[in-house]
């Protein structure tokens, strides 16, 4: 199994190019199911989840290929299988996003239930209830969601009890080919939702007010293929900025979208960093500055993103003072805490909060990645820990970070990937 070996490094310095956003690219790739002709998507990161999505679309019958390091092409015209198998869904929860498009375009879908994962139970009840409100008949049997609709889905007024990114995306895609108007209330407002809406509109859909909590969609009869560029990854950006901050470095993130991570940048300033921000770049300077603990409360956008929580716990481990990080989205997203404790961090878990007293040094250790962002926090800690850190189970990391060790090494880190 592959592992990362990380040695303590000098302050990170230089410039890094941010990749396309995983969480925007995944639903955007799924929009191809709705189209009547070929779609080309640019700024699509080379990640395990993207390969899984291309495999899933291929399994459905689409011709889905990577053209080059940036772009993928999907011709959906041969889709003739409406079944997303457990084998693929179990490796990537976002596979559930084929449900809405398949049902809207072909009137049927069979999708394995994603099941729980390391960070929480993550039910899909809101996806199913919304589709039922649009006229779908859904049966959950033997671990599979069996869904069908007689004729077209019907526009509906849907209120979601919980703010869900995935449910908003699934229902938004389904509504584009439904008959009539759909209103999604208490919708998620993440930048990735806006990116998805922009892509759908480029295909001929009529989606309005994405980015607010009330999205209005007028269904159309057909969508065409399009060429669309995925937005930059705000979570990857934040992760690199924190890596630079904990090492006392100075880096510039190019090809970023600063307006999508305002709340993260605010916390970095509170943590002591000096930031310079341009239209598509962010420069962080931590030279000779004191890293200070910050308090965090995760919340749906525009609140603090849960996907940056673990990285800030790593920052607090090394900062002056006590920082309280509270996780409000997922019930089990502190799996990085025991691993960071093994490296010498002083963290106590109190309910859904991690209370962290900063220490002046961490010590390298053998640690285990348990989920994507937990893995990132261990890599960040490894950059400054004395001695060697060995991170096991890095397939989690490869789901969401493109060439992470190559990019960090380009900034002066010393990370090797080994197979043992
Ligand atoms: C591929 C992708 O974009 N993943 C992101 C997406 O995940 P994902 O779309 O799975 O997360 P959701 O926004 O749906 O989950 C938010 C909360 O809603 C709950 N819930 C969700 C659906 C549902 O039907 N019922 C229900 O109760 C979840 O258990 C969770 O507590 O948003 C999360 C929250 O920002 C991020 O951490 C993930 O990185
Ligand atoms: C939790 C994440 O992704 P996913 O929803 O794909 O598990 C993430 O990107 O941090």
TrEMBL record:
Location of this chain's protein in the cell: Cytoplasm
Catalytic activity: phosphoenolpyruvate + UDP-N-acetyl-alpha-D-glucosamine = UDP-N-acetyl-3-O-(1-carboxyvinyl)-alpha-D-glucosamine + phosphate
Active-site residues per Swiss-Prot or TrEMBL entry: 117 (proton donor)
Enolpyruvate transferase domain boundaries: 10-408
Keyword Iron-sulfur carried by entry: no
Any GO molecular function: UDP-N-acetylglucosamine 1-carboxyvinyltransferase activity
Biological pathway: Cell wall biogenesis; peptidoglycan biosynthesis
Record EC number: 2.5.1.7
Gene3D superfamilies in alphabetical order: Enolpyruvate transferase domain
Keywords tagged on the record: Cell cycle, Cell division, Cell shape, Cell wall biogenesis/degradation, Cytoplasm, Peptidoglycan synthesis, Pyruvate, Transferase
Chain residues that bind UDP-N-acetyl-alpha-D-glucosamine: 93, 122-126, 307, 329
Binding site for phosphoenolpyruvate: 22-23
Residues recorded as bearing 2-(S-cysteinyl)pyruvic acid O-phosphothioketal in the entry: 117
SUPFAM superfamilies in UniProt: EPT/RTPC-like (SSF55205)
UniProt keyword Cell cycle present: yes
Chief site of localization: cytoplasm
Superkingdom, taxonomy of origin: Bacteria
InterPro entries referenced in this protein's UniProt entry, alphabetically: Enolpyruvate_Tfrase_dom, Enolpyruvate_Tfrase_sf, MurA_subfamily, RNA3'P_cycl/enolpyr_Trfase_a/b, UDP_GlcNAc_COvinyl_MurA
Family affiliation: Belongs to the EPSP synthase family. MurA subfamily.
Function recorded in the entry: Cell wall formation. Adds enolpyruvyl to UDP-N-acetylglucosamine.
Name the UniProt record assigns to this protein: UDP-N-acetylglucosamine 1-carboxyvinyltransferase
Species per Swiss-Prot/TrEMBL record: Paraglaciecola algarum
